[in-house]
User: Fold these one by one.
Assistant:
Number 1:
Amino acid sequence: MFKDSFKYYKSRNPPPDLKDVVDFSIPDLNKVRIITTQCVENQQGDKLGLKPIKEWRVYELIDVPGLIFIENPFTEIGQQYWILKCLKDYSKKPNKLNLDIHNVLNDNESWWDITFGNPEKGKNLLSKLRWTTLGYHHNWDTKKYSEDLKTQMPLEIVKLMDILADAIGFQGFKAEAAIINYYRMNSTLAGHTDHSEINIDAPLFSISFGQTAIFLIGGLTQEEPAVAMYLRSGDIVVMSEGSRLRYHGVPKILPTIIKPWETNNASESNTSISKNVDHWKKAKMYISEARINMNIRQVLKSGQMTLY
Ligand SMILES: O=C(O)CCC(=O)C(=O)O
Ligand SMILES: [Fe+2]
């Protein structure tokens, strides 16, 4: 049962045995299948912080057809770029934040500015950011998207998704909604399915940064057992086809030793991405005790212009 696996991996006392957690960095070919990428190098990829596509390692989980895993395809600078985007830009109005209902931020205040610029008010705010929504906003109560609640999808996310989708054979994917999830070391995400999108034939992309997650993917009902896997910084999970509507969740965040965002010489790098060293220092501090997940979906069927 999904709940049993969740409880097992969440437990602190006793701590879980991690021997069955699928580790794509040492792929077991009894459990995973190698997928070949459609290697049309895209010049934009470099600007979006991606390694050349020919260097990517892509797998499918044999027991969960359609569950595709791309092992961190980001460069170190790329990791910094996306972490900063999630912390500084995507957590701003007009996007929606979990903090909105608490009225802790005034309209002209941003989470980033207050957290790192106002020691008194910022102290409590750092750990309170839990999610933000972009594009079509998911309404957590009705579990529906609405045409009225819609903001512009950031162009860099749209472009990134075009490249990722093309590389693994999902041409035509349109990034129309995103949830950015922010996890502290003791955060969890309960088992759920993502079924609110009209177009459930389109894959869902889930990109992780920062500390490592144990991610569980179960079956179409809660009764089926779950497979556990590590999601490390930069790793991408694609829930497509038979895996798209399966139960999944995050029972545990583990501190990571491998920090692909942390370079010795990134601050000397000449790309515009790491230009703001001061901002990066703050983001680096945040990410040393946090995980960020960018969860990106297509909502509409191709050719459909609005929800109605
Ligand atoms: O954080 C994750 O890896 C999963 C997030 C997720 O499932 C969701 O946002 O629907
Ligand atoms: Fe989900």
Number 2:
Amino acid sequence: MLELVVWCGVAAVLARAALWLLAAVREVLHQLWVTRDIPGPPSYPLVGSFLAVAGPQEELYEKLVALRADLGPTVKLWLGPVLVVIVSRPTDLELVFTDPRLQTKPWLMYASSMEPCLGAGLITMNGADYRRHRRIISPSFAQDVLHGFAPSFNANAHRLVEQLGELADSGEVFDAAPLSRMCTSYTVCETVLSADSSRLESDRRAVVQAVYRGVTLMFHRGIRPWYRWDTLFKLSKHYDDYQEMVRVGDSFVSKVLDLKMEAQAKETLGQAEEAGEPDAQGSGKQGKRKAFLDHLLSSEEGKTLTKDELSGELKHLVAAANSTTSDTLSFFLYCIAIRQDVQAKILEELDAVFEGDREREVEVADLPKLKYLERAFKETLRYFAPAPIYARQPDSDVKLPSGATLPKGCVVLVSPHFTHKDPDIWPDPDVFEPDRFLPHNSVGRHPHAFIPFSAGTRSCIGQRFVMMFLKTAAATVLRRFHVTTPEDGPRRVRDIKPIFSLTLHVKGGARIRVQRRT
Ligand code: HEM
């Protein structure tokens, strides 16, 4: 009798496995058929077109650009049994960003590579959980909340100015990227987590290091599907580093949450003023400044998030905010160091808005007046979109306006670089020209031709934050320093080589020199 039960069990498992395999084969056959007219590089049994993109990480960017140039705006790639369709026409993208059948983030590119490190959060979640979290978190990014961050943006821009001052005095050539990272990380710690307490200083320094390394490690693991299995990943030389990064992130966010809960408890007991550690970011009575976390915790809906959910969201925000923003600042400084004419126009505008005052703090009211500076940042984001790829997965077959069909279950990949460098949309795409974004030069350009922050329901929640911070940092730095490239540095923006990771970095560093303005 027992034998019969065991055999029935084995038969049931085998039947399920066979059904699963059958469904998977059917899906692949369907995908092959539906996408037969979409061009792609040569594909071979088992590996598919993996060879077209395999190789050192430094070459990935050039390989994708070459695919676009050779095969056109819609390209398919078979990575083993996984079908990837790269979409780049603005009219197609509009559908990708807005169609309800295309709002799922593929597990393979998101949850499987990010959640072991960050936990679940807005970037990786799907379905009803995602919608609930976005509804709870969005109000904490409202305009008035962002305006409260101006003192933090200014303070951290001044910290950057101090560091640049020392480098100006020494006259040395340096890489702007680590300084941009430090400035961004401190700002994000303060404004997202309200982690500017002196009790967190040493942890915060560790996090600044871990965040950058973390982006590289997550990418390293993410593009090697066999590392999804911990057993195999343990064999990787990066395993210990990865674990350390996870530990640093978890411990930091946990400490921040504990301190916050402690401060709230004291506040409730009316003891905030006597508490030895004043609430630096102002969730206490006397404070004015509130971080995202304070807003979240003070909202009724925010209180429904569990500690695990909160911790995941905070890690997602810190990860999403840091590298993207600091890479933009590094690319921007490098571009204007090369393009002295653009830098001169920025200074002219700064002198007009600040009436020649090179010391005054940047106020929220100044920011909308810095229109040329904003165009220069937009052009930096067009040229070097810091989030180089992102993806969706159709719940059912979706026909694009261009005629191609995205089959159910494939990975729809969006690379802003494909769209941002399309000469039919952007004349002379390799020329760095901020005035492309002048209203009269934008007439007739499709709104989805510029997509550094994605678009639609799953677009970046931090885009207004980014512009406020970057403009404040640039207005503070450029009124005080003149930025140049060294003699052996690139002469044209097109000579800057980016390197692909989860975000886009400057290959070899953004090597610049600064001189004090007189
Ligand atoms: C230049 C800086 C930034 C760029 C270029 C950028 C770009 C993007 C892009 C392309 C996405 C969509 C990703 C996808 O679909 O997988 C995204 C999502 C997101 N970004 Fe940003 N981002 C930047 C800064 C920030 C900042 C400062 C924050 C927070 C303070 C932030 C928070 C998020 C979050 C939470 C999401 C997920 C949104 C959702 O799916 O609902 N980002 N970002």
Number 3:
Amino acid sequence: MKLELCDKRKAIIAQTGHLLVLGGPGSGKTTIALFKAQGRFATLKPGQEVLFLSFSRAAIRQVLLRCKEILTPSQRRAVVVQTYHAFCMEMLEAHGRLLHGRSVRFLYPGEERLQKSAFDGDWSVERKRQAAEMGLYCFDLFAAGTADLLEGCAALRGLVADRFPMIIVDEFQDTDDNQWRIVRALAQVTDVFCLADPEQRIFDYRDDIDPRRLDILREAVAIAEFDLGGENHRSPNAGILHFADAVLRNQGPLPVTPDVKQVSYWGNAFSATVHTAVIWTFSALRRKGVEKPSVAVLSRSNSLISDLSVILSEPHTYNNQLLSVIEHDVVWDAELSAAAAIVVASILEWPTGLAAESLARTLLAIAGFYKLKNAEEQTNTAAENARKYDEAAAKVAKGEEPRIKAAKALVAAHAAGVALIGEPVADWKVARRLLQDIPALSELFREVRLVRLFRATDALASGLSERWLASGSYRGASDLVKRILEQERLIAAERDSQFGCILMNMHKAKGKEFDGVVLVEGAFKSGFFDERTEQPPFERSRRLLRVGLTRARTLVTIVRPQNARPLVD
Ligand SMILES: Nc1ncnc2c1ncn2[C@@H]1O[C@H](COP(=O)(O)OP(=O)(O)OP(=O)(O)O)[C@@H](O)[C@H]1O
């Protein structure tokens, strides 16, 4: 890719030492970092590389695409693009013995979840103990362990600096406390190049992500600072950024631009309106000359994303026009769907055992679902549900009647019997239907619907089918389903197409770029402005909306309920 470099960019490339480049969405932070890296290649000794650290695999893919545009194949080989997790895992694997005198093993999330639910006490203390005494590190401790290593061992810092004379740190504004310790330790020995946009700070609800991170960096490290400001190369002819900035600053009137289209719906026309909006966005992009458009459908919550996935998978009619099904991928929290799938699998096992034992297994699986939910985002409801279902499982196992309604409904359903015929797809639906029919379990039903997105349907169906053929039942289905979904989850992480339609929540869209974006607000959930946790002017929600809007290169379609709060006051 040939770019005319302006004076500011030339100065960035010429600047030695640590660098902080600020800039809005699409201002070219990633791009200039790679140009800067390109300038360093000539000076690299054999074995030396430039490290590009980012947060998510999705962001990494985006950086790799940009590498392809800018760097030659041999230059690309000299850049290592990694998530913090991957970097830390390698560090712990190679040098973790220095920490506690024993080599390090890893506790994967599925396994951690099980241990956590079985552990009676403060898990955050226990997992630290496991790390210190057994060398067993769970994912969340990778960064802390690596920071301990780098802070404690100058020789190791030297080793890392020897391999990576330059480290680029993406999305620096969202760096958490332990990641910051890593960057600070490495800044003593190697050049760090931090990229940041304070306005794209969307994770600062987390305790360990300090809103003052940029100032902390400036205080700790002598760093040259450049600001690309509001430059916008992602959608240079588009009013998208102006629109997004007006939303961010709550400054009316909203700029009128053909690049942002707003559509509203009445409650009963939600599905057809969303479906039409997505189809319209694709065809508008094609009309604008984008041959194979990529369109992201974004909303605030996974729960709405799950509904949207179902909507796009069914035909609708709008103004007498038939809207055909839209093939799409979904980026979502697969762990929760997997946990809900295990509940369904446990129902498939009902006919194979005693009532008390079968029902207790299902109730424990439900408790497991809520424990996971609570582990991902702590809420009183999730914690309380986990406790109630655990209690119900204990009662049922003793042959006593459970107290909660949903558990009573399950007991009744069990007594009525589930009719399974040895046809896994049909039987799966029968078992899943039970969750749909019990109001308190509808959340699990919504999650389990997403299981088809694992693309594991074939593996699941054939696994279950084999079970049935071998034993005339689905005995062991819970373990089978768990294993298959865990495998698929690892594979799915690597699969991501560059074209077509993809659904995800706005947090997950961070760092990504698409031709078109359809932003969807629900009428009863997933409002654009989070009125439960925020006061007007909803600064946090506005930052998130800006991230969503600015993911689009060419076109944004916004779908909102008729009576929604205006985007600017
Ligand atoms: N100097 C430039 N001239 C022309 N196009 C550019 C320039 N810099 C970047 N671009 C293009 O602009 C788009 C956005 O660039 P980039 O991803 O580097 O921005 P960013 O600041 O990292 O964005 P974000 O923070 O939103 O992820 C890319 O398509 C890139 O090719």
Number 4:
Amino acid sequence: MAATEIQLDLPVDMHVHVRQPPMSSLIVPHLALGGIQTAYIMPNTIPPISNVSQCVEYLDQLESLLPPSSDVELIGTLYLSPTLTPAEVQRAAAVRHPKTGRLRIGGVKSYPRGVTTNSDGGIESYDVYDEVFAEMERQGLVLNLHGEVPSDEEKNITVLNAEASFLQHLHKLHAKFPKLRIVLEHATTAAAVEAVKQCGDTVGCSITPHHLQLIVDDWAGKPVNFCKPVAKTWDDRKALRDVIRSGHPRFFLGSDSAPHPFASKMPSAASHGDVQTAASCGCAAGVYTSPILIPLCATLLESFGALDRLEAYVSTNARSFYRLPVSQGSAKRILRREQTTVPSSFTLDAHKDKDDWARDKAQVVPFWAGKELPWKIIS
Ligand SMILES: NC(=O)N[C@@H](CC(=O)O)C(=O)O
């Protein structure tokens, strides 16, 4: 008989974008709504979070937006850029939360230049960071890799093979720094799954729920499903599903939930009726899943026969890789089989009564808007 209730060790999302004011005030409370207890916060803000004091200030600001009853803990990351020195890495590793005494900055995120949202200050070569990586290895900070290389006509690289072309960098970094914990973020291909499996225990891999569902056809022409790296083929999706179904301990949830205002996702909305603007503007990359995250994961894993791996995927695998404590005593997330409808959008309070244009800039459309989810968080 199909399960009607599931208890989970408290879920962790090891890759999430919560943005800055005013958008962050809408997004941060959605972490708890989606069932997450620990959230690993990405640094691609404007400007990027590139040093310890910026990171601590950002985390303080985000924590002030958490509902008082929430058990959510935030872990910060630093944006890899030339200003990051070995001394700053040492400072980052020493920061503790003033109340809990827990680690506050978990790692450093590398964005190759120009491949995604706010990556203009991203890196062009890994070699210049050898001393930084060596210090991270000593201090136990994690290196989080956005695993794509920029498009390049000479090398025939496009969004479709940008991840496969990146994997050589993963292997080189792992060979050079075998004790450095490295996470290949939001893997989308069978090649990436294979590459991570071939590496040693210090290399992990996050997989988003949307990449467990989408393929190319789902984002070509549908902005709400467009994200970087783009979803690939049926075979690639099968490889992602298979590795989650196998329970491989180094593969875990990183939602890459990436909210963008509706106006930035839909060129026609952004143009506000101006044809020229509509023709020239692009579609922001990012899929928004935070408010529905754990019910969505349960729904997807059940759809491909992996519900028994839900706890490993959303909690225990990442807790073990990141050396986070497992839930204390009876602290659990409980899911019940109960139908709920995914809201069609989420809008900042101050903009709910505004005209369409102002609202489009303060409104986010979630993944699977309007669809039914068979699982609901009850505590
Ligand atoms: N995934 C995305 O498509 N977008 C992310 C950036 C990122 O992680 O690539 C964002 O911040 O919007």
